[in-house]
Design goal:
The complex is a heterodimer of chains A (about 425) and B (about 240). With about 425 residues, chain A is mainly α. Chain A is about 70% helix and about 0% strand. Chain B has a 6-stranded mixed sheet, with helices on both faces. Chain B has a 4-stranded antiparallel sheet with strand order 2-1-4-5, covered by helices on one side. Classes of the chains: A mainly alpha (about 425), B alpha/beta (about 240).
């Protein structure tokens, strides 16, 4: 028998396979026994070799099963995707080992050892997470200090929002624009009046009591809707031929981009009222939303400007030569293309905006993360910070991931370069 | 007959570099003029000045009775009467061919959508790509794209058509299909100014030829004389290289 150990080939296929799989299996048995049984089967080696033994065994094993054109589809697929060279084999093994070592303990913390039942901290007896905390505080995490009896108003607004968004996808095209107009202009008024109350016999609920995830949504939604058009106009302004418009746009953008959001929020809450004429009052939440909107609009402007600059001059020439003026050229030709180009950048800015909302705690508004911060300092629930913030992370991740998926779908849908 | 385009002593600089020097040019309605010359001689700049895609600094340009200058209020109205076809086609990639053609009639000329689309289909038929109407520019060959660009310009029903090296970016086998459309257009009586190196096309349709070099019009003559007895040495040299 003529075994070539440097370059396994098809000739002695089964010998190589048996050899490779044996080594690989020993490597995996080693790591399993290390992780779950606390027994090191390679303990008799010097420490460093014993530590690296699963990797060494695995690499040799993978080396032997790397048989080119073996004719076995599964094996070829494995070799192509995980095992195309010794370096890639090492990387694949490291990733697999990390998953084996840490995923089970994470799952244990999250689910298997976690506590779901009960209503006080003392009910949490297991080693894992104490989800009782999230369960008990769930209502506050969602609605803040909004009175329980009035929460249907928030629920109704969100159901209305979700159902109108959903109907955009279901109804035929000709109704779409009415629903979008409704969402942009009528819905915000309905939702604001409904949630704040004070009319139609609804109890007035001041914005200080708003909070939790619903406040996250309210702040993000308003800021998203308004920062986009403002950003577009700033981007156009920055490229304008008129010096007054150009320099004021540059000034605005650079001012807001140069300041940390947290100071902007402070200013909006503390400084801004000083500039208002005596006797006028602007709601704190409103000021915060305006501040975040303008702040993110400056970023949006630069993202959009990137798209504008990426368009070839020929597009401007063609639009002009057809007799289009500045606005028609931009709204029909330039912006549709430029915005499509920068969808990833726009999505980035939107995600950043949503994740910036927790900062409004500095002016005393408590959205989801803020409410968790408050709950974890409750004397009955000390030591629950991890559960709280993991929950917040999960919720934010779900929101942001859905937005990200939506932006990717949009990109695909608008792509005309097939 | 009065001139539809008149340039008098037009000078233009890019920074310090003078691209157009003392240009004088008259174009009569239905006249076809072919502009040729080496690259960098200012041919493209010249025709781009006619619809003010470039601004001239001295002299006067009058198009269809309207003086074109910084003070021109409705430059858009003048541009709407002057169609232009570009070397790089410059179709709008986010719109279908049909929308490319009907967009300006709808938004600039305020035609109803249905009529604008009928007009677009008519012109697409004229350039023989009506079967591509629903496609996007990226799905068409270069020759088809350029014909679509011609159709788009025609949809504005212009009085004058400017062509800026329309076949220079095309594969050789596609040049003919575009030139055929242009010949057809010329025979239909359109006023045309064409910057091109296609001398066969020039001989077939041009009434007058212009030869430019270093920003100047070196020679202007009717087509026959231009090819048979060019006067300046520079023209002779150029023609000997290109023919």
């Amino acid at each position: 028998m003529n075994l070539n150990l440097i370059k396994p080939n098809k000739e002695n296929f089964y010998t190589y396979i048996v050899l490779g799989i044996t080594l690989l299996s020993i490597g995996f048995i080693d790591i399993f026994s290390n992780t779950f049984l606390n027994f090191n089967i390679t303990g008799f080696f010097p420490k460093i070799i014993s530590y690296l033994s699963p990797l060494i065994l695995g690499v040799f094993g993978l080396h032997f099963i790397r048989i080119e054109y073996s004719g076995n589809k599964t094996l070829d697929a494995i070799n192509k995707n995980l095992n195309s060279s010794n370096t890639n084999a090492i990387l694949s093994l490291i990733v697999i080992f990390i998953l084996i070592k840490y995923v089970p303990s994470l799952l244990n913390w999250f689910i298997f050892d976690a506590n779901f039942l009960g209503s006080t901290k003392e009910d949490c007896t297991g080693d894992g997470a104490c989800w009782v905390f999230v369960k008990v505080w769930f209502n506050r995490f969602m609605y803040g200090m909004y009175p329980d009896a009035e929460q249907w108003r928030i629920n109704f607004s969100f159901i209305l929002l979700l159902s109108s968004i959903g109907s955009i996808f279901i109804l035929p095209n000709k109704f779409k624009k009415y629903i979008i107009l409704f969402l942009l202009f009528i819905f915000p008024i309905i939702a604001l009046n409904l949630i704040s109350g004070g009319i139609f016999g609804l109890e007035w609920i001041e914005t200080g009591a708003w909070g939790g995830l619903s406040l996250t949504f309210i702040v993000s939604a308003f800021a998203l809707i308004f920062c986009f058009p403002i950003g577009v106009f700033l981007a156009l302004g920055r490229r304008s031929d008129l010096p007054a418009i150009r320099y004021s746009s540059i000034g605005f953008i650079e001012l807001w981009r140069g300041v940390p959001l947290i100071t902007v929020l402070f200013m909006s809450a503390v400084m801004f009222p000083m500039f208002l004429p005596d006797g006028t009052y602007m709601d704190k939440l409103m000021r915060v939303i305006i501040a975040i909107t303008l702040f993110e609009a400056a970023y949006m402007a630069e993202v959009v400007r990137g798209g504008l600059q990426a368009l070839p001059r020929g597009q401007y020439d063609a639009a002009k030569s057809l007799g289009m003026g500045y606005w028609r050229m931009h709204f029909l030709i330039i912006l549709p293309q430029a915005l499509k180009l920068v969808i990833p950048g726009i999505a980035n800015t939107f995600l950043a905006l949503v994740k910036d909302t927790p900062l409004i705690f500095v002016v005393g508004l408590l959205e989801l993360a803020g409410m968790i911060g408050l709950a974890k300092t409750n004397p009955k629930w000390l030591g629950m910070a991890t559960e709280g913030y993991v929950f917040a992370a999960l919720v934010f991740w779900i929101i942001c991931f859905s937005m990200s998926r939506y932006s990717q779908n949009l990109e695909k849908k608008l792509s005309t370069e097939r | 007959m009065t001139n539809i385009i008149e340039l008098k002593n037009v000078n233009k600089w890019f920074d310090k570099f003078q691209v157009l020097k003392e240009i004088n040019l008259e174009v009569k309605p239905k006249e076809k003029i072919v502009v040729c010359g080496p690259s960098g001689s200012g041919k493209s700049t010249l025709i781009r000045c006619i619809n003010r895609l470039e601004e001239h600094q001295e002299g006067s340009i009058v198009v269809d009775g309207n003086e074109i200058s910084e003070n021109t209020k409705n430059i858009e109205n003048i541009r709407a009467e002057v169609g232009m076809v570009f070397q790089q086609f410059n179709l709008f990639p986010h719109l279908s061919i049909l929308d490319n053609c009907s967009l300006a009639p709808i938004w600039v000329k305020k035609l109803p959508k249905k009529i604008a689309e009928e007009l677009a289909m008519e012109n697409l038929k004229r350039v023989q790509i009506e079967d591509q109407a629903k496609k996007f520019p990226g799905q068409l060959s270069g020759g088809q794209q350029q014909r679509a660009a011609i159709a788009r310009a025609l949809c504005m029903e212009p009085k004058i058509m400017l062509f800026d090296e329309p076949t220079s970016a095309l594969d050789p086998e596609m040049i003919k299909e575009v030139l055929d459309v242009m010949v057809d257009l010329a025979k239909g009586g359109m006023t045309m100014i064409v910057v091109t190196h296609e001398m066969g096309f020039a001989k077939e349709v041009a009434d007058n030829m212009i030869f430019m070099d270093e920003g100047r019009i070196v020679e202007k003559a009717n087509t026959n004389d231009f090819f048979k007895n060019p006067k300046s040495d520079r023209t002779k040299l150029f023609l000997s290289q290109i023919l």
